[in-house]
Design brief:
Blueprint (H helix, E strand, L loop, with lengths): L8 E5 L2 E5 L4 E7 L14 H13 L4 E5 L12 H18 L5 E4 L3 H9 L4 E4 L8 H9 L2 E5 L17 H18 L7 E4 L8 H9 L1 H4 L7 E2 L5 H7 L7 H13 L4 E4 L2 H15 L4
Parallel strand pairs: 3-4, 3-10, 4-5, 5-6, 6-7, 7-8, 9-10
Antiparallel strand pairs: 1-2
Helix pairs in contact: 1-2, 2-3, 3-4, 6-8, 9-10
């Protein structure tokens, strides 16, 4: 069936309730890191990051995902204090300015997430899906924060060292299902959980294309799907272009993901992505 069916599902974060699936949410990316693959640390300084946050809101994002530790292939981990020093000025400013959209914190560390929630962040985005620090599940359960469970294998430093799958969509679905079960075991309600197949994380270009083609299979997990293909290497390989010239490729991939059943897309280029997914939503019509 084209477009693929997309259920309307409840999502709850820090006491606020939403229905996902009616129109696609665009999650704006704010990297407060000096070594991001896509923007080369342009928003690593506090003032630059706050300006970009305001732009993301103005450009129409539904959620802003803020990260203080790079998860690009080959990235080395940083300490809690180093990660927090990058995030604190932005989160403090966001709270002071009463930013009108919810924020998520892109971290795998329970202590960083705890501090971020204290600053008003509503969603935890865990690229390890509770593999690195399962206490993130406890924190989501006790606070009522939303949580994004993203599929990956290994760690950023090594995850692209010859990734192997016999059935990438089937294996990603099973591994996400295990993470979903672990979150439930720790007391997280289904309505708090979003799932991300982890495009570009421990996957070859062929794996990424296969996942996008078979995305409707992952909707069977019963939670809204978030897809983040923005500026990633597998798109650049098609066109032989660097990250900063992958806008059209990113828009195409995200529109395809929406038609395949994704409820959220995570993007660097917010304004253009909002326009692209609105067209994809119009094409979906009543195929909710």
């Amino acid at each position: 069936m084209f477009p693929a069916p997309r259920a309307r599902l409840p999502f709850r974060a820090l006491g606020r309730s939403y229905v996902l699936g009616r129109s696609t949410w665009v999650v704006g990316i704010l990297n407060c890191t000096p070594d991001s693959f896509s923007d080369g640390g342009r928003h690593a300084e506090g003032e630059a990051a706050v300006r970009r946050l305001a732009e993301i809101v103005e450009e129409g994002a539904d959620l802003c995902d803020i990260g203080g530790e790079s998860t690009r292939p080959g990235a080395l981990p940083v300490s809690v204090e180093e990660e927090w020093s990058r995030l604190a000025p932005v989160l403090e400013a966001a709270r002071r300015l009463a930013v009108p959209i919810p924020l998520s914190i892109d971290t795998t560390k329970g202590e960083v997430a705890r501090r971020a929630l204290h600053e008003g962040v509503a969603v935890i985005n865990d690229v390890s899906a509770l593999r690195f620090d399962p206490t993130l599940g406890d924190l989501a359960a006790s606070s009522g924060a939303g949580i994004i469970l993203m599929h990956s294998r290994g760690e950023p430093r090594t995850m692209q060292d010859a990734p192997f799958y016999q059935d990438v969509a089937g294996e990603v679905a099973r591994e996400l299902e295990r993470s979903l079960a672990e979150a439930r075991r720790r007391g997280v309600a289904d309505e708090q959980i979003l799932l991300d197949p982890g495009i570009g994380f421990a996957k070859s270009a062929e794996h990424n294309w296969e996942l996008l083609r078979r995305l409707p299979e992952l909707t069977q997990l019963g939670r809204p799907l978030l897809v983040g293909a923005s500026r990633k290497r597998f798109l650049g390989a098609v066109l032989d272009l660097p990250p900063e010239e992958r806008l059209e490729a990113s828009l195409s991939a995200h529109a395809a993901a929406v038609l395949a059943g994704a409820s959220l897309v995570r993007a660097h280029d917010v304004r253009a992505t909002v326009r692209a997914v609105r067209v994809a939503d119009a094409l979906r019509g009543s195929a909710a």
